[in-house]
Fold Si:dkey-174n20.1.
Amino acid sequence: MYLLYTIIACLVSFLVLKWLKKRKHCTDTKRLDGKTVLITGGDSGVGKETAVALARRGAHVIIACRNVEKAEKAVREIKFRSHSLNVLQMEVDLANLRSVREFCKKFLHIEKRLDILINNAGMPGVLDWTDDGFSVCFGVNHLGHFLLTNLLLHRLKECAPSRVVTLTCSIYKYQKLDFQDLNYNLLPFFTYCRSKLANIYFSQELAHITEGKGVTSYVVHPGFVQSGWTCHFSFLFRLLVGVIMRMFFVSCEMGAQTVVYCAVSDEAAKHNGGYFVDCRPATLRPFARDPGVAKKLWEASERLVKLS
């Protein structure tokens, strides 16, 4: 009898875990021939899977990464899996605003199109600082992408209709922004939450300022994904979290589905500035839908990155 109960418990646990990891696939089959896609952090995780999916659709895909050697290896894999040779990498360090400016200058010189920008790269909650003195979470996850998007915005408008897809996380709901201390870097988890909330406000204000100009903006929670973010922590932490991720988190390929959906779907285009989960619009907490806060963050970010 004990053995029977054990078997039933294991079966129920397996079914529950399978249900928790069940996600929707992007079923839109739109081709992207002739389109140029830029993906930050496309050398691993959700970014790499997004690159594979969009290269398969015929897009010219550029992955912008800090580690050139790792990016070159990722490009070879993306080409092999997508059966496309139209993939390349460019170097950028989002933790260094000078690097972002140099990258954008080079990109605009080399590439004559930009149809889809995917702000995918991100840092977990670690107590570290960028080269410009910002907490690494806020500096990379928000300010680096804020500057990059603004410097490329004219090219996006030239290639309209174009899209900007920014990745966030549902844990934004556990924090609010403090404009007296945007550079908060005391508790790693809360620092990360704030940076993901900033991504949401950024996407909303971007949608507002580009309304009627052919550029649409979306923010995506890809789900809790089995990615390599734990590489920034100790071996014991990686081991423990690795077990949890295996049990409860979805694959990077599944995590990329909503990103791909927002990049290609005509249905998604009806929800400019929207928040998407599992290939459909989702509802944000009321405080995360405040246009006044979104505008205030945008203006503060302009000052921080010295964007004239």
In short: Residues 3-21 have pLDDT under 50 and may be disordered. The chain has one domain: 26-304. Strands lie at 36-40, 60-65, 87-91, 116-119, 162-167, 215-221, 274-277, 280-281.
